[in-house]
């Protein structure tokens, strides 16, 4: 059962071979386009299956910008099929480009040929030496060729235009080496190919004659590809396979058109050398002066492209920053406008609040003033009513006391005087009161003139000790004692009868009690001074 098929969407078929199909697929996660080789291994013999396993192992370890990238593989055991997911090259292969130039009857530009050679040399350097080629040094000392690790060297053995793929990256075209199905992984120096493999048109003589071969067999194939780019046809052509083998063994190739430079033609002739010991290696070609200049130019172009890319990214970042700056400025203005609006709204609300507060305060103060005036008026009316009641009570008490005093003063006078005043039929009484007995005034405040005080009472008052004037409220207290207990249980100096003092004490107690009740009802308000003076004068 497939473990990876659900991660991809199958697209159109772009190629078919003897062992399977090549199909485009789209990765669901990011939409990236890949190539899937669908290989059926049921019809393969044991050698071909080993070859397939070798390809997977080789592709897994080869990571280089000029080698088609290997992603993963999926084994479908029920279908006896193997799916290999690889990088999709958008520009097709080099065979399609040659066919296009041949159709248009135009020659391939020399710069394109140099670029194909350089990219393939970079890829072969990774395969043959297992590391990437370093930066070129035009003015440095010559370096020796690195040793070949026999345990890790990879020989492609099938370099041809169909296995060189193109990727269009802007103004630059990148060439990548792919299809390592016939690649041979050498494990020791005595391991040689004993079977016929590869395409005869681009096969080296040692491989064709089953002789021991080395990595330089790929240089022969590369030279044949470069020759075909210059002439738009392979260097060796024949009607039969035997004739083709004979021509390859001789190594005689047609002349390359003079339109191409001598260094290019010289390199192609060096690559197509029958003796492998005289054939240059990948390192030798990279150290060729023309190739070194080309490498330097390529490095400068790459740096220029990187700088342009950085400049482009910088321009994009600058545009983004400008957009963000404009956005932030607009946002700042918007925020400033909103803040200004909020401040205006706040000021308006504050003004409205202050106005409402002032109105409420005015209404409240007005209501308080009205309530206060009403309470003052009610208190004044209540005070006046209490004052009137108090004056009425005081006047009544004064009348009672006056009557008692008058009634107590009558025995002190001589009988003749009393009879004279009391007998209404006497001439003096009739003379004093021609209309009969005197009537009390209806107004309690209009008190008639009292009779003269008798000498004995006057003497008693004179002989009594002088006391300090005491306020009316104090004199009305029930525990107040007058001189000689005159009104509080004492004896009357004019009369030994104590009934008057006891009565006066009781009256004082009642007056004090009423005074306390009046103080409680009026909130302990004091009587105005003019009332006190009035009461004292009347008393």
Tags for this model:
539 residues; alpha+beta; Phosphorylase Kinase, domain 1; Transferase(Phosphotransferase), domain 1; 5-stranded antiparallel sheet; 15 helices; 51% helix; 10% strand; transferase; Ser/Thr_kinase_AS; kinase; coiled coil
Give the helix/strand layout.
Layout lengths: L7 E9 L3 E8 L5 E8 L5 H16 L8 E7 L4 E7 L6 H11 L5 H20 L24 E2 L8 E6 L2 E6 L6 E2 L19 H4 L7 H16 L9 H10 L11 H10 L10 H5 L2 H121 L5 H8 L4 H6 L22 H9 L8 H4 L23 H23 L7 H10 L1
Antiparallel strand pairs: 1-2, 2-3, 3-5, 4-5, 6-9, 7-8
GO molecular function, one term: protein serine/threonine kinase activity
Keywords: ATP-binding, Coiled coil, Kinase, Nucleotide-binding, Serine/threonine-protein kinase, Transferase
GO biological process, one term: filamentous growth
């Amino acid at each position: 059962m497939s473990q990876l098929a659900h991660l991809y969407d199958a697209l159109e078929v772009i190629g078919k071979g003897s062992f399977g199909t090549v199909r485009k697929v789209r990765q669901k996660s990011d939409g990236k386009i890949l190539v899937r080789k669908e290989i059926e291994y049921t019809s393969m013999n044991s050698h071909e299956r080993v070859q397939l396993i070798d390809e997977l192992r080789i592709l897994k370890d080869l990571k280089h910008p000029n080698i088609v990238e290997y992603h993963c593989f999926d084994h479908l055991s029920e279908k006896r099929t193997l799916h290999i997911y690889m990088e999709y090259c958008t520009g097709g292969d080099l065979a399609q480009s040659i066919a296009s130039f041949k159709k248009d009857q135009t020659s391939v530009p020399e710069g394109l040929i140099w670029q194909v050679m350089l990219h393939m040399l970079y890829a072969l350097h990774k395969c043959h030496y297992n590391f990437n080629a370093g930066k070129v040094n035009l003015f440095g000392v010559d370096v020796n060729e690195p040793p070949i690790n026999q345990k890790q060297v990879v020989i492609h053995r099938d370099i041809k235009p169909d296995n060189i793929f193109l990727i269009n990256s802007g103004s630059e075209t990148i060439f990548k080496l792919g299809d390592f199905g016939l690649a041979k992984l050498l494990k020791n120096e005595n391991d040689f190919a004993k079977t016929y493999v590869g395409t005869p048109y681009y096969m080296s003589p040692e491989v064709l004659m089953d002789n021991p071969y080395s990595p330089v067999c790929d240089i022969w194939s590369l030279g044949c590809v470069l020759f075909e780019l210059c002439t738009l046809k392979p260097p060796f052509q024949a009607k039969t396979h035997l004739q083709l083998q004979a021509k390859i063994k001789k190594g005689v190739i047609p002349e390359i058109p003079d339109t191409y430079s001598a260094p290019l033609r010289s390199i192609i002739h060096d690559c197509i050398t029958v003796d492998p010991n005289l054939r240059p290696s990948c390192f030798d070609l990279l150290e060729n002066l023309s190739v070194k200049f080309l490498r330097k130019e390529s490095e400068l172009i790459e740096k220029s492209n990187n700088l342009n890319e950085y400049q482009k990214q910088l321009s994009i970042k600058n545009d983004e920053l400008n957009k963000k700056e404009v956005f932030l400025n607009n946002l700042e203005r918007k925020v400033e406008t909103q803040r200004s609006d909020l401040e205006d709204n706040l000021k308006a609300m504050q003004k409205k609040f202050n106005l409402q507060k002032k109105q409420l305060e005015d209404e409240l103060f007005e209501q308080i003033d009205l309530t206060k005036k009403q309470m003052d008026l009610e208190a004044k009316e209540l005070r006046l009513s209490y004052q009137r009641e108090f004056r009425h009570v005081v006047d009544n008490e004064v009348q009672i006391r006056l009557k008692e005093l008058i009634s107590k003063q009558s025995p002190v006078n001589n009988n003749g005087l009393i009879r004279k005043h009391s007998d209404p039929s006497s001439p003096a009484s009739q003379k004093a009161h021609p209309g009969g007995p005197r009537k009390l005034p209806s107004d309690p405040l209009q008190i008639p003139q009292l009779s003269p005080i008798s000498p004995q009472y006057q003497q008693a008052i004179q002989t009594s000790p002088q006391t300090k004037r005491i306020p009316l409220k104090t004199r009305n207290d029930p525990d107040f004692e007058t001189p000689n207990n005159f009104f509080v249980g004492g004896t009357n100096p004019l009369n030994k009868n104590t009934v008057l003092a006891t009565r006066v004490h009781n009256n004082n107690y009642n007056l004090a009690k009423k005074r306390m009740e009046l103080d409680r009802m009026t909130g302990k308000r004091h009587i105005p001074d003019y009332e006190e003076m009035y009461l004292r004068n009347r008393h």
